[in-house]
Amino acid sequence: MNSISRRKFLKITGFSVGAAAAATALSPMIKGANRINKEKVKGIQKIPTYCDICFWKCGTVAYLKDGELWKVEGHPNDPLSKGRLCPRGTGGIGAVSDPDRLRSPLIRTRERGEEVWKEVTWDEALGYIADKMQKIKTQYGPESVASFSHGIGGNFLKHTLKAYGAINFAAPSFAQCRGPRDVGFELTFGEAIGSPERTDIENAKCLVLIGSHLGENMHNTQVQEFANAVQNDASVIVVDPRFSVAASKAKYYLPIKPGTDIALLLAWMNVIVSEKLYDVDYVSKYGFGFEQFAAELSAYTPEWAYTETGIEPELIRASAREMAMHKPATLVHPGRHATWYGDDAQRSRAIALLNALLGSWGRKGGFFYPASYSLPGYPYPAYPTSTKEKLDNPGKKYPFASEEITTGIREATITEQPYPIKGWFIYATNLIHALPNQEETIKAIQNLDLMVVVDVIPSEIAGWADVVLPESVYLERYDDLHMSAFKETFIGIRQPVVESPADQKPNWWIAKKLAEKLGLGNYYPWNHVEDYLDHRLKAGGLSLEQLKKEGIIRGPKPPIYFEDGIVPEFPTPSGKIEFYSLQLQEAGFDPVPKFKRPEQAPSGYYRLLFGRAPVHSFSRTQSNRILMDMMEENEVWVNQDVAEKWGLKNAQHVRLKNQDGVVSNKIKVKVTERIRTDCVYMVHGFGHNSKMLKGAFGKGASDAGLVTKYATDPLMGGTGMNVNFVTFEMEA
To answer: Is residue 98 one of the residues assigned to a domain?
Structure first.
């Protein structure tokens, strides 16, 4: 096959429409913001859409039975869901029936945080917001309004704010989640991992998971591919202080001392290089600075790593040789939530370098080259030009930050430097749970003249807002088109299945009406979001009616591996895979990652680790009664020997106290041999204290409340949060 430039495939503009499924049918759409047919139809209706319980955006089919929402299933033609949903997605109908949902716009009547409100009309709420925004613009400039958002639903609100003149936009998904991982891979290969990740798990012959809890962290496509890889007898190597679900599938399980991952990665690479087990041709052809890199590795023997990690030298050697035996179809998974200890970009770079040695980038069973469908944008007027710089990273303090830093905006809001931030718009992210050090977040909020929260539930951050706007849940609204880069090109639609039960509105309507209040109606020349969607689809030779009916339209499968004809391209300064990074060296950082021993726990304390559950998504699903029935509260995992020392019994309630004296809600103890003695573990997202979350209030404990310390990554500004320690306080 002829060589094909990856960039050409990223600009594909045509679909093979005949490949689309036609198994679903949409009921007629008529009146209202979402144009739902109010007439109940007897029998079963199937309406395609895509999920919003997490960011993965799986294609789904919603079922109505005699006009009532019945269930949701995976869309059989969606390349992400492959016809199946995770437990969270299947429980998505609980978001519609959640009795704690926000029902009407609210304006604060007492002090921030007291959660005392008055219900108002949409006209009153948007008028109040617009008046405050105009005052901020007059006194400080439009740049003094900042936005925090998560997910595709924030697109239209960002459009309104950009039209207003705002320039400061950030999402916790960068500095509190995947940012170090993306930067580490960008520094090595010139490209990030993306979302969904470009990992070819289903074809891997050896899968290495370092603190990546597949099976508990329920990203649907990856979990399905993981199951397929296990069924196909792939070797699995798991590195984790906790014996996770994934560890139960492992050929090699390495119960590492928390915070020593870089030491293990260096030792693995030492074995692979010293025994010449790496992909010599690949490294020779595509690598830069390999000789300097190899020289740096020479001291990092398995014996040296044993003293840091607690992993026996022969286990380090055996697992390294296992990886090499299956190269290039060995995938060292980059993980997702990669903000651990403050050196996380370098740890992720070490993972990238290990993959480079194994020749897995661009290879089957490693990392594929994704492609996405490209539609022209809507022809909006140009946004106003600002004379100010973004303020999240002044002076490029974090020189390799590739996206905006949430905590940078928070710090600027507190210090009012380099200029004041006086307004926050928060869409679908609970900053109280997402950002470390809640005290700093609240201090910043108290400096604001306006804080607006758009959400479907009354989260903790909503309790601090001046105005709370209730959004329709994903089964009740349109959103922007879904065109994620993946193994094949596709386009999906989110469309309303049922009506909102009260005075909730879709995000596009909120953004459009606010723009009109601000005198920016010319930025919304369309009357209804269907007009916007139809315009974009027609520009790509498609139709809205077709997409509403089919839900997913798939394009041709492009080449995704070097062996398929993809031309290897590495957008680094050298144009190659950078084993030795001159750009890091010139910026004053280590050109090859080095291990730095993390701070140790005070006597009687244990490192606090936290992660995910397969039935919950961050802190946003605990009021969903269907998902709460499956997991109502979290537990703290405590090693059996530690429990015996403290006199702890299984299911006993304790409180956790961190190194700064912060005490959690009560939480059940899970006594287990499946965790090391120097750490404890809990699932993230519980311990809600919002009085309006009646179903989730006080259930379990909040790990976020115990994260009062954080270590900032000097390369990109990510907040390492596994630097907190806890001890036990007994319940009387």
So the answer is: no
